[in-house]
Amino acid sequence: MQQFAVLQLTGCAGCEVSLLNAEEWLEQYELVYMPLVISANSIPDVDILLVSGGVRTDEDLVRLRRAAPKAKKVVAVGTCAISGGVANLGSRDEVHDLFLAEEGRRHLPRLLPECRSIAEVVPIQQTLPGCPPTPELFVRLLFPPKDLHMAKTVCQECDRKKQKTMRPRHLEGLLRGTVLPEICLINQGYLCIGTSTRGGCNAPCTRAGQPCVGCRGPSEAFIHKGPESWLNTIEKVFSKMTDVPSNEIKAALRSPQLSLFLFQLSHDPSTGGHPGQEVEVL
Ligand code: SF4
Ligand code: SF4
Ligand code: SF4
């Protein structure tokens, strides 16, 4: 039986919960380390090490450096591990001030000057994007299909249809609060960026009437081009499909609502890999 471990760095535990919602691996994998559910002090040698969360503190750095050499394969799981996500919120001034203040620290780990992706610290072989990756994606990771056919974008997995005649003038979908079934959310004034976001999640958000915020990161076409190219393309989609003023689109794309995913780590926004390192993105 193959063994795997889950190392949780600075994040929210959502990735772990999603993994636990996938039951398929229980019969064929032995989970030997995962502090959320297993009492074990250290990570033994394993076939696969899943790392969630970003390298935000000195403790994260030490734990990751110790754990990675014990695994045949290291996978960065989730936006935090790949490129920042929630862990990157620690870069905000008020969080820095809180953690850097000696008074009342109560043995909190020290923040590193900036959040780092897993791949900046140790070599990785694969990433599993998403915030969190869906349980189905974890199954695909642990049981790689022989022929992997994955939709290129979230749009291709979303059943909603784009309408030529329905052109919103403002991004007021969220204010209105109602969602028409079957019709593309862009046509309804929502800031949905599924057109340029990596597919594979089966569009759970847009199917439920919530716009895609791009948690799977840029689609293959933009993954090595950087965030500006991704943003420009999304802006073009909105100018083609809507009458929303371009400054409104630009401001919305740079809003806190999307910044966790669209901007991620400014110095390493796409795959989170070492330059030149071949990393498979699932
Ligand atoms: S990627 Fe999302 S779900 Fe996973 S740890 Fe980070 S914030 Fe939580
Ligand atoms: S833009 Fe969003 S709502 Fe419209 S088809 Fe694409 S994913 Fe679905
Ligand atoms: S639809 Fe978008 S936000 Fe939702 S899981 Fe997929 S990529 Fe993430």
Give the strand order, joined by hyphens, for the main sheet. Answer: 2-1-3-5-7-8
Provide the helix percentage.
25-40%
The CATH architecture of the largest domain would be 3-Layer(aba) Sandwich
Distance between the termini: 23 Å
Integer-rounded radius of gyration: 20 Å
Largest sheet: number of strands, sense, barrel closure: 6 strands, parallel
Give the ligands present: iron/sulfur cluster
**Proportion of residues in extended strands:** 5-15%
Overall mean pLDDT: 87
Q: What quaternary form is this? A: single chain
> What's the helix-strand series?
EHEEEHEHHEEHHHHHHE
* Full CATH superfamily name of the largest domain: NADH:ubiquinone oxidoreductase-like, 20kDa subunit
- Low-pLDDT runs of 5+ residues are 266-274
- How many discrete structural domains? 2
Number of helices: 10
Judged by helices, strands and strand pairing, the structural class is alpha/beta
User: Which fold name fills CATH's third level, the topology of the largest domain?
Assistant: Rossmann fold
CATH class of the largest domain: Alpha Beta
Q: Which outline best applies?
A: globular
The count of β-strands is: 8
